[in-house]
């Protein structure tokens, strides 16, 4: 009897001690071949259960999948609103190819406090990772604003994945899987698009701040404050960029700052709205309501340390929901009933934010599904609002000045307008100068000289020189449409797109393609010409791509003719589906390269083609150094400018291989 009892106890003990996690039930394994190429949305393959209190070990999770009632996502991205429950998801991947593969499982939604990944192999080995908004950024497998988990698949291996989610914010789980290379492509595009958005908002913030210092209208400073809090800092938190860029080792700061930025965003709406719509004059009673709501948002900020994160986050969602409709009603009343024209821009701009914001809030509350529209509508609406409100501020200044200056003489009005215009031109000049390189890169074996001569105070040309790797230099030269403030802003947009492009583009054709994709459709339906080159001093190679820009010239003291290099390529902004072929040319010691915009041809026109005259001029001076050639071109420009101002901007860049 004792032996039988001992045997039973040993069997039970062995079963508990060596219990292995069970696989995912009612799930068809996903063949690896089906996820090759684009990232694969797992919402059609997920089963899940909810648990409170939460569980944390793989054995508890696998046992729960066998015993608890399960639900299937059925192709809909899981979205549970603001919940205090923990959710566990399960899916299975089978490597049906005969190669070793590395895959990345990732969640695109960044406001999750705790994300647990378990990968259960057929061998019984379990790999795991815990990350989330309340964990240091270094816990994440990849530098990505969402959450990612890398695993290796052996040939013919089947791996079961468990993913546990818990958060004090709203919970949506856009769970994806991709090959490592496709994941990096996705994150590169994601970073580029985020960079373009924050670049536009940042440029508009700086521009409006400069305008405030010129006109001293408090509407501008309130608008800049609103942009900095709502369109930049709150979006940093909403898009999961605070730990990526600023606080990688301060998860509690990242966690607690979200609600603070949320209510600061709501707070800054009130002074901006009051001044923008001139409520003190147009609607004094509504102004009192706005001031009351402003005090309410201050009270909420003061309560943040004493009330739970979840409660205050839900309060912010309800507050923003009600405020959106109230502000829309007020802007309609002021714009169309009181007939205050600047408020129309506010109405249309705020309408775009409300559409995007409501879609986002309702997604957070669990009423709307998670899709491309609800994930990005708030950020897109905010970008549109930034542009519309900028026009509205300009219109508001015009209206207010007109009302104040009715009793003044027309000559005095014209004088003030000319002064303001001159200041804006100077501002645009400073803005454009900030986009041009202040110091030329120094590279052993390469001499560089540049010349920039705008036809007016603010020109439409742009160039940049960037050291790329240890032995390469990248150069971009472009002719931007227009002059003045629009040209300066467009050049700034081009600069942002170019700098973002250099993070992943290592060929001139790819540089132009990426810039074109970034700007086409977002560039006020205008076009620009550009030429990109890479000079590799180690291999002595010149790589060239062209987007409708004038050719570059290559020559040396032994040349019998100037080599004209101009690969084919359409203008940037013509279409997103454009590719830019490249040409590769050998370089030798003593070779000189001249890049320029078409304004330089006008200087050499003397009854004949300016291009032919310039080529003949270069042939005569082919043996001179770059410094001497630069001096000759500079002297030629100044002599021609004595006859009258140039009709077009002139930019040129000279290189000499030493």
CATH superfamily of the largest domain: PPM-type phosphatase domain
What ranges have pLDDT less than 50 throughout 5 or more consecutive residues? Answer: 1-19
- Mean pLDDT, all residues: 82
Shape: flat
CATH A-level architecture of the largest domain: 4-Layer Sandwich
Helix content: 40-55%
Regarding quaternary structure, how should these chains be classified? single chain
Structural class estimated from helices and strands: alpha+beta
Strand content: 15-25%
Annotation, overall tally of beta strands: 23
The first-level CATH class name of the largest domain:
Alpha Beta
From the alpha carbons, calculate the radius of gyration and give it in angstroms: 31 Å
Sheet having the most strands:
7 strands, mixed
Query: Alpha-carbon distance between the termini?
Result: 96 Å
What's the number of structural domains? Answer: 3
Q: Describe it for me?
A:
The chain is α+β, with helices and mostly antiparallel strands and 658 residues long. The protein folds into three domains: 166 residues, Immunoglobulin-like (Sandwich); 190 residues, no CATH class; 220 residues, 4-Layer Sandwich (Phosphatase 2c, domain 1), CATH 3.60.40. It is built from 17 helices and 23 strands. Strands 1, 3, 4, 6, 8, 9 and 11 form a seven-stranded mixed β-sheet that branches. It has a five-stranded antiparallel β-sheet with strand order 14-23-22-19-20, covered by helices on one side. A hairpin with a 7-residue loop joins strand 19 and strand 20. Helix 3 runs antiparallel to helix 4, helix 9 runs antiparallel to helix 10 and helix 12 packs parallel to helix 13. It is flat. The chain starts with a helix and ends with a strand. 39% of the residues are buried. The N terminus is likely disordered.
